[in-house]
Design a protein that fits this description.
One of its GO terms (biological process) is methylation. With 324 residues, the chain is an alpha/beta fold. Helices cover 40% and strands 20% of the residues. The strands form 2 sheets. The chain has an 8-stranded mixed β-sheet, with helices on both faces. Strands 2-3 form a two-stranded antiparallel sheet.
Length: 324
């Protein structure tokens, strides 16, 4: 029996030696979950092998020219197609509100037809991240659902009323849309203007009732793209926020300090940050323990873990408040 087992292990090792692709396949990945209705086999949700652009993220990011910051306005074509978007959406039902969002297949078809889209570049490379180009905003990642459920259970609608909220690294924008539907004024920020134009803004519009004029809507929401440090400078002297929502934004260790500076610059003295993430992001290097060590080192925020899931890779929600 031992001889057979030894022979089998030897053959497996030999296969990896002469065919290293076997060892690489699916080794490095986010281990995220997306909504089953949104999942598309053509837009892979793994981090691929080590040689792929996704897994070179850490090494390449520091030498890249990051996207400049700008305000994004809804285009007329988006406004003209609200009815079409409403026919191509799915709905999340929470305790006290329903949130609709575009389906992944419908989005992917638009992406294929785009001429110079950052999302298209990622799709062509079969990657969820392209360093300095695209930051994964086309998907709804697992921790977004965690935060939505947490907020629905913890905060009443009155808590949100008249608060100014930032959805930082918003992607599909579901966290900010939830806050808006609860009565908050919301700014949406994402690295990619394509994500805001093709996903976030349509998602917001399909959640607006016909009784509310669009002029009133856009008085209470704003959209900004660009690198966090450049966006903070772009918005210097403007609003600071009662609540900052951010989910799955600490996966890249090189950006964690940049994120923390953004939180320090944009949170009110008595404000709160609701941050959700995994304890570790395989193939990228970041994670909650690393970010908590940064918080402890900087000593600018107190934080508490208010929710934990140990299914698969552990996920947590942190509440951050300014240290007095």
């Amino acid at each position: 029996m031992q001889t057979v087992l030894f022979h089998l292990l030897f053959c497996v090792a030999l296969s990896f030696h002469f065919c290293p692709e076997l060892l690489k396949t699916n080794m490095f990945k986010f281990d995220f979950r997306v909504d089953e209705c949104d999942k598309d086999d053509n837009f892979n949700d793994t981090f691929y092998q080590k040689d792929s652009p996704s897994c070179l993220y850490q090494e390449e990011t520091s030498s890249l020219n990051c996207h400049e910051a700008t305000e994004i306005l809804p285009s007329q074509s988006i406004l003209d197609n609200i009815d079409v978007y409403c026919l191509q959406c799915h709905t999340k039902i929470l305790k006290n509100v329903c949130i609709s969002h575009l389906s992944g297949g419908f989005l992917l078809e638009d992406i294929r037809n785009a001429s110079n889209s950052d999302i298209k570049k990622a799709h062509e490379q079969h990657s969820d991240l392209v360093p300095g180009v695209y930051e994964g905003g086309a998907k709804i990642w697992e921790c977004t659902d965690d935060v939505l459920n947490f907020m629905a259970e913890k905060y009443s609608q009155d808590w949100w009323t008249r608060k100014r909220v930032l959805d930082l690294g918003c992607g599909a924008g579901l966290l900010g849309i939830y806050a808006y539907k609860q009565g908050a004024r919301v700014d949406f920020q994402d690295y990619n203007k394509d994500v805001l134009q093709e996903i976030t803004i349509p998602n917001l519009l399909i959640n607006i009732t016909e009784q509310i004029p669009l002029e009133e809507v856009f008085e209470n929401v704003k959209f900004y793209s660009g690198d966090w440090s450049k966006w903070t400078e772009f918005c210097k002297g403007s609003y600071i926020y009662d609540v900052i929502l951010t989910s799955e934004t600490i996966y890249n260790p090189r950006n964690q300090e940049k994120l923390l500076r953004c939180l320090k610059d944009k949170l009110k003295l008595n404000g709160v940050v609701i941050l959700a993430a995994k304890t570790h992001y395989f193939g990228v290097g970041g994670g909650l323990h690393q970010f908590e060590a940064l918080l402890n080192s900087e000593k600018c925020f107190d934080y508490q873990i208010v929710w934990t899931s140990c299914e698969g890779v552990s996920r947590q929600i942190l509440l951050l408040t300014r240290r007095r």
